[in-house]
Design goal:
By secondary structure, the chain is of the alpha/beta class. It has one domain (2-230): Alpha/Beta hydrolase fold, catalytic domain (Rossmann fold, 3-Layer(aba) Sandwich). The chain contains six helices and eight strands; from the N terminus they run E-E-E-H-E-H-H-E-H-E-E-H-E-H. The chain has helices at residues 40-51, 76-88, 91-106, 122-133, 174-184, 212-230; strands at residues 2-9, 12-19, 26-32, 55-59, 111-120, 138-142, 161-166, 190-195. Strands 1-2-4-3-5-6-7-8 form an eight-stranded mixed beta sheet, sandwiched between helices. A hairpin with a 2-residue loop joins strand 1 (2-9) and strand 2 (12-19). Helix 3 packs across helix 4.
């Protein structure tokens, strides 16, 4: 269903997976990867958004470290590599790469000009930074790791942001969640949903903590949010 495109920046070029909807012109959504690269799960999410009528694109944000990472959450060795990539990742450069992706897909003939973003795990943190640092029209963060250290950026958020927080997230402990919620709960552009009993990556199909009911609930909220803000 998808195709690969190349995005060029002043620092170099990187690839992105693109899935196109049936209609000729549509709003776009940037899918922001987990720590496993642009893998089958991310491509399926991108394809799924295209099936919902969006021009979807998933950029390779690890290209500066190792281009083309495509691993799973199924082995200890892959988890080890994923955390090494996570620790080596430069979030500031990643935000610049997402901004370049937004510009590229907005200029695509198949885009209406509206662009949203949705990120998971590391991508959830990057979706928060996307809301703060880019002209993305609407952003969605799923269980973003490290947002508690970035709440000072909240004052820069001028467009809608939705957060999905897993209350039992092993990578975002309750004190971190409290910091995030307290900093953002009264922000006029921010909507927060919490999921009782859910652990990190509850919306990752096939993942250890996948919960079908709450994954569907969060997914429905995300699509409603995009329909409202991307038109």
């Amino acid at each position: 269903m998808g195709e690969t495109t190349t995005i060029t920046t002043s620092d170099g070029s990187f690839s992105a997976y693109v899935a196109r909807p049936a209609k000729a012109k549509a709003p776009a959504v940037v899918v922001i990867q987990e720590i496993f690269g642009v893998n089958a799960v991310m491509r399926e999410i991108t394809d799924g958004l295209a099936a919902q009528g969006y021009l979807a694109i998933c950029p390779d944000l690890f290209w500066r470290i190792e281009p083309g990472v495509d691993i799973t959450d199924k082995s200890e060795a892959e988890w080890k590599k994923a955390f090494e990539l996570f620790n080596a990742f430069d979030a500031d450069k990643g935000a610049e790469d997402i901004a370049a992706t937004i510009d590229a897909i907005r200029a695509d003939p198949g885009c209406t000009g509206k662009v949203g973003s949705v990120g998971f795990c590391l991508g959830g943190k990057m979706a928060f930074l996307t809301a703060a640092r880019t002209d993305c029209d609407a952003s969605v963060s799923y269980y973003g790791v490290g947002i508690e250290g970035l709440t000072g950026e909240a004052e820069k958020i001028q467009r809608p942001l939705m957060l999905h927080i897993a209350e039992e997230d092993q990578f975002v402990p309750k004190p971190a969640q409290e910091i995030i919620v307290q900093a953002l709960k009264n922000h006029p552009q921010v909507t927060i949903h919490t999921y009782a009993g859910r652990d990190h990556a509850f919306a990752r199909p096939g993942g250890e903590h996948y919960d079908e009911a709450d994954a569907k609930l969060a997914g429905g909220r995300t699509l409603t949010f995009f329909a409202e803000h991307l038109g």
